[in-house]
Amino acid sequence: MIAKSLPNLFTIGNLFLGIIAIISVFNNKPELAAIMVIVAMLLDGLDGRVARALNAQSEFGKELDSLSDVISFGVAPAFIMYVVAFTELNAAAAWIVTAIFPICGALRLARFNVVAGTPGYFIGLPIPAAGGVLCTLALFHQELNTIVLALSTLLLSYLMISTVKYPNFKKIGIPKAAIWITPVVVIAAVVLAIQFPGTLSKMIFVPLLLYALYGLKKNVDRVFFFLRRKRKKAVDEPESKTTAI
Protein backbone atom coordinates (compact mmCIF):
# COMPACT_ATOMS: atom_id res chain seq x y z
CA MET A 1 0.00 0.00 0.00
CA ILE A 2 2.80 2.42 0.94
CA ALA A 3 4.69 1.55 -2.25
CA LYS A 4 1.60 2.26 -4.36
CA SER A 5 1.22 5.67 -2.65
CA LEU A 6 4.85 6.70 -3.17
CA PRO A 7 4.31 8.36 -6.59
CA ASN A 8 1.48 10.49 -5.16
CA LEU A 9 3.72 11.53 -2.26
CA PHE A 10 6.24 12.87 -4.79
CA THR A 11 3.41 14.73 -6.53
CA ILE A 12 2.20 16.23 -3.23
CA GLY A 13 5.80 17.24 -2.51
CA ASN A 14 5.84 19.01 -5.88
CA LEU A 15 2.66 20.90 -4.92
CA PHE A 16 4.04 21.73 -1.46
CA LEU A 17 7.19 23.26 -2.94
CA GLY A 18 5.12 25.28 -5.40
CA ILE A 19 3.19 26.80 -2.50
CA ILE A 20 6.45 27.46 -0.61
CA ALA A 21 7.78 29.22 -3.73
CA ILE A 22 4.77 31.56 -3.76
CA ILE A 23 5.19 32.31 -0.05
CA SER A 24 8.94 32.86 -0.49
CA VAL A 25 8.63 35.42 -3.28
CA PHE A 26 6.12 37.44 -1.25
CA ASN A 27 8.62 37.33 1.63
CA ASN A 28 11.21 38.93 -0.68
CA LYS A 29 13.16 35.71 -1.28
CA PRO A 30 12.97 35.27 -5.07
CA GLU A 31 16.09 33.10 -5.30
CA LEU A 32 14.69 30.63 -2.77
CA ALA A 33 11.34 30.74 -4.58
CA ALA A 34 13.00 29.93 -7.91
CA ILE A 35 14.98 27.00 -6.54
CA MET A 36 11.83 25.60 -4.90
CA VAL A 37 10.29 25.46 -8.38
CA ILE A 38 13.41 23.70 -9.68
CA VAL A 39 13.27 21.08 -6.91
CA ALA A 40 9.55 20.68 -7.65
CA MET A 41 10.62 19.87 -11.24
CA LEU A 42 12.78 17.06 -9.86
CA LEU A 43 9.81 15.64 -7.93
CA ASP A 44 7.60 16.00 -11.00
CA GLY A 45 10.13 14.05 -13.04
CA LEU A 46 10.31 11.31 -10.42
CA ASP A 47 6.62 10.71 -9.71
CA GLY A 48 5.79 9.28 -13.13
CA ARG A 49 8.96 7.20 -13.30
CA VAL A 50 8.38 5.79 -9.81
CA ALA A 51 4.76 5.03 -10.74
CA ARG A 52 5.86 3.13 -13.85
CA ALA A 53 8.58 1.26 -11.95
CA LEU A 54 6.08 0.17 -9.26
CA ASN A 55 3.23 -0.36 -11.74
CA ALA A 56 1.25 2.16 -9.67
CA GLN A 57 -0.09 4.42 -12.43
CA SER A 58 -3.65 5.66 -11.92
CA GLU A 59 -6.13 8.26 -13.17
CA PHE A 60 -6.10 9.81 -9.69
CA GLY A 61 -2.33 10.27 -9.86
CA LYS A 62 -2.59 11.74 -13.36
CA GLU A 63 -5.15 14.35 -12.29
CA LEU A 64 -3.27 15.17 -9.07
CA ASP A 65 -0.09 15.66 -11.09
CA SER A 66 -1.80 18.11 -13.47
CA LEU A 67 -3.33 20.14 -10.64
CA SER A 68 0.03 20.29 -8.84
CA ASP A 69 1.82 21.34 -12.03
CA VAL A 70 -0.53 24.30 -12.55
CA ILE A 71 0.43 25.64 -9.12
CA SER A 72 4.15 24.80 -9.08
CA PHE A 73 5.02 25.59 -12.70
CA GLY A 74 2.23 27.96 -13.72
CA VAL A 75 1.11 30.13 -10.81
CA ALA A 76 4.37 30.15 -8.80
CA PRO A 77 6.74 31.19 -11.66
CA ALA A 78 4.23 33.81 -12.84
CA PHE A 79 4.08 35.31 -9.34
CA ILE A 80 7.88 35.27 -9.08
CA MET A 81 8.18 37.21 -12.33
CA TYR A 82 5.35 39.58 -11.36
CA VAL A 83 6.82 40.46 -7.96
CA VAL A 84 10.45 40.92 -9.02
CA ALA A 85 10.07 42.38 -12.52
CA PHE A 86 6.61 43.62 -13.45
CA THR A 87 6.18 46.40 -10.89
CA GLU A 88 7.46 48.89 -13.49
CA LEU A 89 4.82 47.85 -16.04
CA ASN A 90 1.39 49.38 -16.39
CA ALA A 91 -0.76 47.59 -13.78
CA ALA A 92 -3.25 46.18 -16.28
CA ALA A 93 -0.47 44.94 -18.58
CA ALA A 94 1.34 43.33 -15.65
CA TRP A 95 -1.82 41.53 -14.52
CA ILE A 96 -2.64 40.30 -18.02
CA VAL A 97 0.87 39.01 -18.82
CA THR A 98 1.09 37.35 -15.40
CA ALA A 99 -2.31 35.66 -15.83
CA ILE A 100 -1.67 34.48 -19.39
CA PHE A 101 1.22 32.25 -18.33
CA PRO A 102 -0.67 29.92 -15.92
CA ILE A 103 -3.73 29.99 -18.19
CA CYS A 104 -1.66 28.68 -21.12
CA GLY A 105 -0.08 26.17 -18.75
CA ALA A 106 -3.52 24.90 -17.74
CA LEU A 107 -4.55 24.64 -21.41
CA ARG A 108 -1.34 22.75 -22.16
CA LEU A 109 -2.03 20.25 -19.35
CA ALA A 110 -5.68 19.81 -20.35
CA ARG A 111 -4.61 19.00 -23.92
CA PHE A 112 -1.96 16.59 -22.64
CA ASN A 113 -4.59 14.72 -20.61
CA VAL A 114 -7.09 14.25 -23.44
CA VAL A 115 -5.08 14.17 -26.68
CA ALA A 116 -2.94 11.18 -27.65
CA GLY A 117 0.62 12.37 -28.10
CA THR A 118 3.49 11.23 -30.33
CA PRO A 119 5.66 8.51 -28.72
CA GLY A 120 8.91 10.03 -27.47
CA TYR A 121 7.66 13.61 -27.73
CA PHE A 122 5.58 16.22 -25.94
CA ILE A 123 3.32 18.45 -28.03
CA GLY A 124 4.12 21.98 -26.90
CA LEU A 125 6.67 23.07 -24.32
CA PRO A 126 5.98 21.14 -21.08
CA ILE A 127 4.81 23.41 -18.27
CA PRO A 128 7.63 22.33 -15.87
CA ALA A 129 10.24 23.44 -18.42
CA ALA A 130 8.39 26.70 -19.14
CA GLY A 131 8.00 27.42 -15.43
CA GLY A 132 11.64 26.59 -14.78
CA VAL A 133 12.80 29.02 -17.48
CA LEU A 134 10.46 31.76 -16.26
CA CYS A 135 11.35 31.61 -12.57
CA THR A 136 15.10 31.48 -13.23
CA LEU A 137 14.85 34.19 -15.91
CA ALA A 138 13.22 36.40 -13.28
CA LEU A 139 16.48 36.31 -11.29
CA PHE A 140 18.11 38.30 -14.11
CA HIS A 141 15.56 41.11 -13.81
CA GLN A 142 18.25 43.68 -12.93
CA GLU A 143 20.20 42.90 -16.11
CA LEU A 144 17.21 42.67 -18.48
CA ASN A 145 14.63 45.22 -19.57
CA THR A 146 11.12 44.74 -18.15
CA ILE A 147 9.64 44.69 -21.65
CA VAL A 148 12.04 41.88 -22.63
CA LEU A 149 10.91 39.89 -19.60
CA ALA A 150 7.23 40.48 -20.42
CA LEU A 151 7.74 39.40 -24.04
CA SER A 152 9.68 36.34 -22.85
CA THR A 153 6.75 35.43 -20.60
CA LEU A 154 4.36 35.68 -23.53
CA LEU A 155 6.70 33.65 -25.76
CA LEU A 156 6.93 30.85 -23.19
CA SER A 157 3.14 30.95 -22.87
CA TYR A 158 2.79 30.54 -26.63
CA LEU A 159 5.31 27.68 -26.78
CA MET A 160 3.27 25.75 -24.21
CA ILE A 161 0.13 25.80 -26.35
CA SER A 162 2.00 25.42 -29.66
CA THR A 163 2.15 22.15 -31.59
CA VAL A 164 5.95 22.02 -31.59
CA LYS A 165 7.34 18.60 -30.64
CA TYR A 166 9.72 18.46 -27.67
CA PRO A 167 11.62 15.28 -26.69
CA ASN A 168 10.15 13.83 -23.47
CA PHE A 169 12.97 11.56 -22.19
CA LYS A 170 10.39 9.18 -20.68
CA LYS A 171 12.47 6.22 -21.80
CA ILE A 172 14.96 7.16 -19.08
CA GLY A 173 13.32 5.17 -16.30
CA ILE A 174 14.17 4.12 -12.74
CA PRO A 175 14.86 0.43 -12.01
CA LYS A 176 12.55 -0.91 -9.34
CA ALA A 177 15.55 -1.88 -7.21
CA ALA A 178 16.71 1.76 -7.18
CA ILE A 179 13.41 3.27 -5.97
CA TRP A 180 14.70 3.54 -2.41
CA ILE A 181 17.40 5.97 -3.58
CA THR A 182 14.89 8.55 -4.84
CA PRO A 183 13.98 10.01 -1.39
CA VAL A 184 17.71 10.40 -0.67
CA VAL A 185 18.15 12.26 -3.97
CA VAL A 186 15.24 14.57 -3.14
CA ILE A 187 16.55 15.33 0.37
CA ALA A 188 20.02 16.06 -1.02
CA ALA A 189 18.50 18.35 -3.67
CA VAL A 190 16.50 20.27 -1.06
CA VAL A 191 19.57 20.73 1.17
CA LEU A 192 21.68 21.98 -1.75
CA ALA A 193 18.85 24.24 -2.90
CA ILE A 194 18.55 25.90 0.50
CA GLN A 195 22.33 26.32 0.79
CA PHE A 196 22.95 27.71 -2.71
CA PRO A 197 19.62 28.99 -4.08
CA GLY A 198 20.91 31.75 -6.36
CA THR A 199 23.89 29.88 -7.81
CA LEU A 200 21.96 26.70 -8.56
CA SER A 201 19.01 28.55 -10.07
CA LYS A 202 21.19 30.46 -12.52
CA MET A 203 23.17 27.31 -13.44
CA ILE A 204 19.98 25.41 -14.23
CA PHE A 205 18.65 28.33 -16.31
CA VAL A 206 20.97 27.58 -19.26
CA PRO A 207 19.92 23.98 -20.08
CA LEU A 208 16.25 24.86 -19.52
CA LEU A 209 16.54 27.84 -21.87
CA LEU A 210 18.21 25.70 -24.55
CA TYR A 211 15.38 23.17 -24.31
CA ALA A 212 12.78 25.92 -24.73
CA LEU A 213 14.68 27.49 -27.65
CA TYR A 214 14.77 24.10 -29.39
CA GLY A 215 11.03 24.41 -29.91
CA LEU A 216 11.29 28.04 -30.99
CA LYS A 217 13.81 27.06 -33.67
CA LYS A 218 11.47 24.28 -34.83
CA ASN A 219 8.66 26.83 -35.11
CA VAL A 220 10.80 29.24 -37.14
CA ASP A 221 11.97 26.39 -39.41
CA ARG A 222 8.35 25.37 -39.98
CA VAL A 223 7.33 28.93 -40.92
CA PHE A 224 10.22 29.26 -43.39
CA PHE A 225 9.39 25.85 -44.88
CA PHE A 226 5.77 26.96 -45.37
CA LEU A 227 6.85 30.25 -46.99
CA ARG A 228 9.31 28.48 -49.32
CA ARG A 229 6.66 25.98 -50.38
CA LYS A 230 4.16 28.78 -50.97
CA ARG A 231 6.69 30.74 -53.04
CA LYS A 232 7.60 27.63 -55.06
CA LYS A 233 3.92 26.94 -55.71
CA ALA A 234 3.42 30.54 -56.88
CA VAL A 235 6.37 30.20 -59.30
CA ASP A 236 5.28 26.79 -60.61
CA GLU A 237 1.67 27.78 -61.35
CA PRO A 238 2.46 30.41 -64.07
CA GLU A 239 4.90 27.95 -65.70
CA SER A 240 2.18 25.29 -65.80
CA LYS A 241 -0.25 27.73 -67.43
CA THR A 242 2.37 28.76 -70.02
CA THR A 243 3.06 25.13 -70.90
CA ALA A 244 -0.66 24.44 -71.30
CA ILE A 245 -1.05 27.38 -73.74
TrEMBL record:
EC annotation from Swiss-Prot or TrEMBL: 2.7.8.8
Gene3D superfamilies linked to this entry: 1.20.120.1760
Presence of the UniProt keyword rRNA processing in the record: no
Annotated keywords: Lipid biosynthesis, Lipid metabolism, Membrane, Phospholipid biosynthesis, Phospholipid metabolism, Transferase, Transmembrane, Transmembrane helix
Entry's localization field: Endomembrane system
Catalytic reaction equation(s): a CDP-1,2-diacyl-sn-glycerol + L-serine = a 1,2-diacyl-sn-glycero-3-phospho-L-serine + CMP + H(+)
Keyword Transmembrane helix on entry: yes
GO function term, MF aspect, one: CDP-diacylglycerol-serine O-phosphatidyltransferase activity
TM region positions: 7-26, 122-141, 147-166, 178-197, 203-220
Topology of the protein relative to the lipid bilayer: Multi-pass membrane protein
GO cellular component, one term: membrane
Single GO BP term: phospholipid biosynthetic process
Pfam family, one: CDP-OH_P_transf
PANTHER family tied to this protein: CDP-DIACYLGLYCEROL--GLYCEROL-3-PHOSPHATE 3-PHOSPHATIDYLTRANSFERASE-RELATED, CDP-DIACYLGLYCEROL--SERINE O-PHOSPHATIDYLTRANSFERASE
Protein family: Belongs to the CDP-alcohol phosphatidyltransferase class-I family.
The name this protein goes by in its record: CDP-diacylglycerol--serine O-phosphatidyltransferase
